[in-house]
């Protein structure tokens, strides 16, 4: 049976109240409520005791989130739905870290979205008094939160590389690879390949820990550096969710660093969402709003990727769709 569409006034009211739902999801994640329900349903009183909160406000929050499909009631008991289970820290596709990141770093800057649309200046830059990544790097705890959230997004991209064949080449460099989660997925079953992660020094501990955990420390190394300045020589380069953080001129500097260091015949894999034409619903259209509020970057269409790559002296070969909202944009370096 289909669910009736609410009248426009009610639907708009629900949309306008979205900020409250976002905060409620954050509270559920921060208190680990969904993690507590991994082993089965519990009463609100039990959840309140475990989370150190009064039962009444917690119960009201849970009741609200049942309306958006996060929890379900079983008599006096509360359980998570498959949707709500994504806020458990134990879930393989957990988004608890993303809930924390967005509410603790993105929420307040979005208060200035009106001014961002009027001026083009990201709300984060105005709110923090400096570019978002610069502010993030000032405190190790902030950088660690970002690393955890990005690892969450890697889980959310599960299946992206199913059936995908890497182009030929022995050395694969993940530029801006954070903790190496993407490179681990690409190289785990390809013992003949070597890998190198390039990222800022602050993320090195997380990367080394992850590589050791995956048993790949012998095949994947970490190099601290700045991709605007230089990158290691390699046969295949991976830019996983990097270009969307930057404006075109900054992206050109990254791509030129790759072109200058690349081995002959090198290839580039850009892992990004590609915005479809027209009014087709797509997650990247919502993420593009996040870019607008936080960073100078943007999500791009296929023609925009083609133009950007050509300006940097690269050739877009093909866009490979995946089972996820993201695509693999393959390009040849130096037109090879």
Automatic annotation (TrEMBL):
- Matching InterPro entries: COMT-like (IPR016461), COMT_C (IPR001077), COMT_dimerisation (IPR012967), SAM-dependent_MTases_sf (IPR029063), WH-like_DNA-bd_sf (IPR036388), WH_DNA-bd_sf (IPR036390)
The entry's active site is 244
**Record bears the keyword Ribonucleoprotein:** no
Please give the Pfam families that the UniProt record associates with this protein. Answer: Dimerisation (PF08100), Methyltransf_2 (PF00891)
Q: Where is the O-methyltransferase dimerisation domain?
A: 14-87
Which keywords does the record carry? Methyltransferase, S-adenosyl-L-methionine, Transferase
Q: Which residues belong to any copy of the O-methyltransferase C-terminal domain?
A: 113-314
Protein's GO biological process = methylation
What GO annotations for molecular function exist for this entry? O-methyltransferase activity; protein dimerization activity
Please identify the protein, giving its name as recorded.
Methyltransferase
